[in-house]
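Protein 1 of 2
SEQ + STRUCT:
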Amino acid sequence: MKKRIGVLLSGRGSNFEAIAENVAAGHIPNAEIAIVISNREGAPGIERARARGIETRVIPSKGLEREVYDRQVVAVLREKQVDLVCLAGFMRLLSPYFVAAFPQHILNIHPSLLPSFPGLEAQRQALEHGVKWSGCSVHFVDENLDAGPIIVQTPVEVLDTDTPETLAARILKEEHRIYTEAVRIVFGGRFRIEGRRVVGV
């Protein structure tokens, strides 16, 4: 049986598209995207998923408490028998209920070398701090913001001429590459978690 991926997004869905393309090309072997869920009506990523013939669901989050909303999303993911949840620009912090429903099977990508610059506007944070290198990280999700064990990271040089937008564009190219690498690692099962460290076996 194919491994089933559920993708959660709030916006354009470029990391979703990168995963979808790599699934279609066989770079993530024996896998399929079972469902794409958004908390926002009109999210471009939902339209992109529909154009690929992938099932979608919009579950609006406005006005709902975190766990109340998460129970709705988890119910759909379970209905679709999802093996792995990939957050692709999903602008919500997951509740302990959600994390417990898919332990060590929720991935997120963040545009910095964590633990540096968690949260919003990571590229702006990097420029304001004056770092020479930034990058991106794929990590397991826990109840804390951008804090779970790191699976894959890659550095991106910060140029003197960079703006948040130019730095973000270069980091995004690397995001598209390493998210697929992380999914392959998790599906391959050739790792273990020791404390905070993800160790290859």
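Protein 2 of 2
SEQ + STRUCT:
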Amino acid sequence: MKNIAILLTAITLVSCNQGGDKNTQTDTKKPDLQTTDVKTSNVPADWKTYSHDNYSIQYPSTWEMKESDGTVSVFSIEAPMDTAKAIMGENIQLSVQDMRGQAIPLDKVADAAIGQFKDILTNFTLLSNKKLTDGTGDYQQVIFSGEQGSIVMIFEQWYRIINDKLYVLNLTGAKENWDKGGQKIGEQILGSFMVKK
């Protein structure tokens, strides 16, 4: 359980660092970045698909896909910055952790993460914590807010355990953008995530 909490803490720290360099590459074992045009009907025609050996995710063509160094997250997908207000756009990251030999329910994974976030974020507020099901299976959805400087940030995380791996999708955005459609498009991206079983 401690390893999960440490992993999720690291995800948050990277997500909160909206102005930092998240594209540093020091590990030679990066995922195979394959970006193609989307050919499905459930997302807009101009969306792209990021495909890896055992999973894929779709995102708007105006967003930027960045490979990560593998120490915290596999990739990040970033919305364009609102230059008029100097507010970073939404950011989605995926982290994957091996769960072999650990029979930890999704709600306990979420509880461990929530405990860590309370210690990290200023004015932490838990907005939602519930188990949901979609075409990929069960997942735990946690939404919370906290402050980074003078900006109120919203975090939405989806936790899935598939094939003995914990997949954590983290959507982060400024509350100002969140309320103006950032959550809707972010959840559409999260909902496009597929794992080959």
